[in-house]
């Protein structure tokens, strides 16, 4: 049986900033409590949605400690730990304190565009160094390189502590190939809110969600119904979200979901450069959906 704790609704947790651009811990705490109370199954911290590239090393260390203490084991924590310098990622894995962290999410090396063999060797080094389970993260739209089903399956078979992949390639046939041919102790997690429902019907075990920051109870219900095979009810919820899926990403992530959370009164609508808030036209559409949903 799989040894993967990261199933159901995972939240790609944002980092709320105060008006002056500093980290807003009070807003973060509210958000964490809201997620857990609303049915989130696990939290994914320090990913892209958290604007991690714009956080200092001190801020990252503080956030990690704060979130471990705040969550206090109530749900599993998956933490982003990746990069395009293999030696640097291995060093972080070997020298950091991983207590309270249940696994790492490690993105495909970006910008330097390694070959499939390079991707395999990168993740092999990470798997050998990691004291916690590893979730692969394939997101070619951000990294510039797609990890093929063949490479993913090779890693899944060769390393027992590589427990899952967050697949955000947008290529359904590639994801289906992985699901069909994977070993029993390896899972596929949707990396894209919009295709979570169809992917679960093919055999994925959940999602690492952006929209879940704002609407965890609704999205959690959709995921649970789909996982139980109650596809008609799940599909109805999926279709309710169709317009929102597009709106939240039209001006980049996490600009859309931060706009939505600010409309709901949960955070300030502040991002760190090079990211900026959504355009006014997008904001107005998000506002009207928030009102329709009764927030």
Can you put this structure into words, describing what you see?
- By secondary structure, the chain is α/β, with parallel strands linked by helices.
- The protein has one domain (8-230): TIM Barrel, CATH 3.20.20.70.
- Helices cover 46% and strands 13% of the residues.
- An 8-stranded parallel beta sheet has the order 7-6-5-4-3-2-1-8.
- Strand 1, helix 1 (25-37) and strand 2 (42-45) form a beta-alpha-beta unit.
- Helix 11 packs antiparallel against helix 13.
- The N and C termini lie far apart (40 Å).
Summarize the entry for a quick read.
It is built from 13 helices and eight strands.
What is the overall pLDDT average?
Answer: 96
Class in CATH? Alpha Beta
Largest sheet: 8 strands, parallel
- CATH-assigned fold name: TIM Barrel
Assembly of the depicted chains: single chain
Radius of gyration: 18 Å
Shape: globular
Q: Number of helical runs?
A: 13
How is the largest sheet built, in terms of strand order?
7-6-5-4-3-2-1-8
Q: What is the H-and-E element order?
A: EHEHEHEHEHHEHEHEHHHHH
CATH architecture level-2 label = Alpha-Beta Barrel
Helix percent reads 40-55%
Distance between the termini: 40 Å
The secondary structure category is alpha/beta
Tell me the count of domains.
Answer: 1
Strand runs, count: 8
CATH homolog superfamily = Aldolase class I
> Residue ranges: pLDDT <50 for 5 or more in a row?
none
Task: State which percent range the strand residues make up.
Answer: 5-15%
Any key phrases for this structure?
295 residues, alpha/beta, TIM Barrel, eight-stranded parallel beta sheet, 13 helices, 13% strand
């Amino acid at each position: 049986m799989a040894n993967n704790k990261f199933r159901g609704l995972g939240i790609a947790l944002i980092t709320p900033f105060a008006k002056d651009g500093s980290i807003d811990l009070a807003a973060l705490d509210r958000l964490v409590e809201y997620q857990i109370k609303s049915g989130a199954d696990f939290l994914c911290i320090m990913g892209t949605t958290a604007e991690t590239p714009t956080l200092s090393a001190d801020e990252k260390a503080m956030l990690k400690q704060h979130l471990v203490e705040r969550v206090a084991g109530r749900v599993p924590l998956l933490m982003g730990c990746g990069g395009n310098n293999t030696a640097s990622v291995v060093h972080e894995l070997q020298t950091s304190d991983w207590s309270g962290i249940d696994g790492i999410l490690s993105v495909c090396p970006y910008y330097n565009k390694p070959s499939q063999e390079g991707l395999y060797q990168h993740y092999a080094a990470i798997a050998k160094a990691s004291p916690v389970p590893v979730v692969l993260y394939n997101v070619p739209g951000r990294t510039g390189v797609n990890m093929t089903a063949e490479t993913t399956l090779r890693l899944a078979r060769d390393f027992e502590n590589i427990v899952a992949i967050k697949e955000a390639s947008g290529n359904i046939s590639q994801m289906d190939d992985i699901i069909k041919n994977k070993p029993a102790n390896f899972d596929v997690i949707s990396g894209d809110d919009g295709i979570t429902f169809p992917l679960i019907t093919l055999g994925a075990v959940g999602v690492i969600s952006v929209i879940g920051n704002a609407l965890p109870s609704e999205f959690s219900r959709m995921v649970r119904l789909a996982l139980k095979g109650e596809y008609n009810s799940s599909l109805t919820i999926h279709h309710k979200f169709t317009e929102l899926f597009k709106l939240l990403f039209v001006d980049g992530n996490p600009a859309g979901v931060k706009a939505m959370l600010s409309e709901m009164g949960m955070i300030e609508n502040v991002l760190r450069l090079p990211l900026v808030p959504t355009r006014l036209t997008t904001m107005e559409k998000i506002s009207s959906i928030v009102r329709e949903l009764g927030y």
